Amino acid sequence: MKNLTEGRISRHLLFLAWPSILLFTLNSSFNVIDLFWVGRLGANAVAAVSIAFVVIFLIMAFGIGLEIGTNSVISRYLGEGNKKSASDAMIHSLVLGIIMSGVILLSFFILEELLLGLGVGPDIFDMTYDYLSIIILGHATYFLVYAAFGVFFGAGDTKTPLKITAILLGINFILDPIFILGFSGFPAMGIVGAAYATIISRGIGMVLVIYLLLVRKTVFQFEIRSFKIQRLIFKRILIVNIPSVITFLAVSMGEILLMRNVAMFGTYAIASYGISMRLDIFAILPAVGLQIATLAIVGQNVGAKKFSRARKTAWASSLMSIAILGGIGLIFWVWAPYFLSIFSNNLQVIEVGTEYLQIVALTYAFRGLTMTLGSAFQGAGDAKPPMILSIVSSGILAVTSAYILSIVLNFGILGVWYAIAGSAIFSGITNTIWFKLFQFKTSKKVT
After folding, report:
1. What's the CA gap between 275 and 428, in Å, rounded?
2. pTM, two decimal places
């Protein structure tokens, strides 16, 4: 466990952020590796995986919310010097992970209706359904990993999750081409093979985190026999967890509705959007790393009642995020066709995707600002501001303006891209204003 209430803020940010950046780079590579090999199966297969990713992101919202809630509560307990409560919070988080796994499994029974609601065409419906049905059944096991990573992050350890993810990615990297295209007598499974490769590696991840936390006890020493369910700890995790889940659900639902809008312009538009979203994810990875670092540092300092240091951490992280993502945005703007051609050789897909990147990439700095300040709110135990602003920007503004610009005003697919860019700018500015007015002393106290 690392004490984040003393020492240089910039050093702590970099110390925690770089493993997190590598971690989420590797984590995002699961989908990119799938897309790379699936791209060999044609544009329809790419479109199917692109639509599936929107649904997967919806499921991930629950896991990421659990991770954030766990990180926030454990970091604040440790900031207070209360290791016993931090240990109890770890077990409660794992229990919540098991409960969420069961809930997510129920989504399997509404998958067909969900895909129909997305407007998935008959040419890719069966392919998308087969891929997602396997992913959902396997992804449910990964909620324990989300909980475990929140424990590690809250304790100031970002290297262990990095090592675990590297192992899982290596497994997925080996299995993907074998399962998708076949190898030395092993039958080609197509898009379904990508799903099986992913869930096998995720299942191994679940086994690893259980072993590290409950058998080797690498973070907290505890006696499982003395464990008792405490509603108060559940409540404190859920106070951050639920708004964080809603935040990501708002983003996910916004992506689903935007995908439905994009689907009006055909399979090539869907494929372009799917590839571009994955490139977006890679672009914002430095901000994701800074998010994890900011949440843990702010959490420990709020727990220790060092509110001024918590605020300085948020602004320092935001400036780093703006500088880095702004630079990446310029790179994507200049070399957009090259990055898109890695995943598709279809000229229409590349052309539409280039238009997307040359509009949206210029707003990456605003996304970084939104992400780092949002994590500061969450670290302080108040996840409502980022929740409200996500609902407004992603769930309402982006979706409605995309429809108006693309359909009503006849801007076509460009209207969707302008709407996404505009909502990112709005979110960055409003998060900044809200955080300037935010008082840490009014946030939820953890005892």
Report:
1. 24
2. 0.75
Residue 119 has pLDDT above 80, yes or no: no
CA 360 to chain centre: 19
In a domain, 4, yes or no: no
Give, rounded to a whole angstrom, the gap between the first and last alpha carbons of the chain: 19
Maximum Cα–Cα distance for the chain, whole Å? 65
* 144 has pLDDT over 80: yes
Q: For the chain, what is the mean pLDDT?
A: 85
Token output for 294:
């900011």
Q: Could you give the CA distance from residue 380 to residue 309 in angstroms, rounded to a whole number?
A: 12
Total structural domains within the chain: 1
- 3 within some domain: no
Q: Are 77 and 237 in contact (CB under 8 A)?
A: no
Query: Number of C-alpha atoms within 13 angstroms, CB side, residue 192?
Result: 9
pLDDT for 176 beyond 80: yes
CB atoms within 10 A of CB 397: 18
Q: Tell the burial category of 138 from Cβ atoms under 10 Å away from its Cβ (0-12, 13-18, 19+).
A: middle
Nearest partner of 38 among 131, 111, 165, judged by Cα: 131
Tell me phi and psi for residue 401, to 5 degrees: -70, -30
- pLDDT tens-digit series, residues 72-99: 888 888 888 888 888 888 888 888 888 8
For residue 226, name the pLDDT band (cuts at 50, 70, 90).
Answer: low
pLDDT tens by residue, 312-353 = 999 999 999 999 999 999 999 999 888 888 877 788 888 888
Residue 1 placed within a domain: no
Is-contact 389 434, C-beta < 8 A? yes
Alpha-carbon distance values, 36 to 42, 345, 368, 376, 411 (Å): 11, 12, 27, 35, 31
Sign of the Cα torsion 323, 324, 327, 333 reads: negative
Q: Is 152 exposed, middle or buried (0-12, 13-18, 19+ CB in 10 A)?
A: buried
Domain containing 173 equals 9-442
DSSP state letters, 39-106:
GGG-HHHHHHHHHHHHHHHHHHHHHHHHHHHHHHHHHHHHHHT-HHHHHHHHHHHHHHHHHHHHHHHG
Pick from 223, 246, 198: nearest CA to 374 = 246
In a domain, 2, yes or no: no
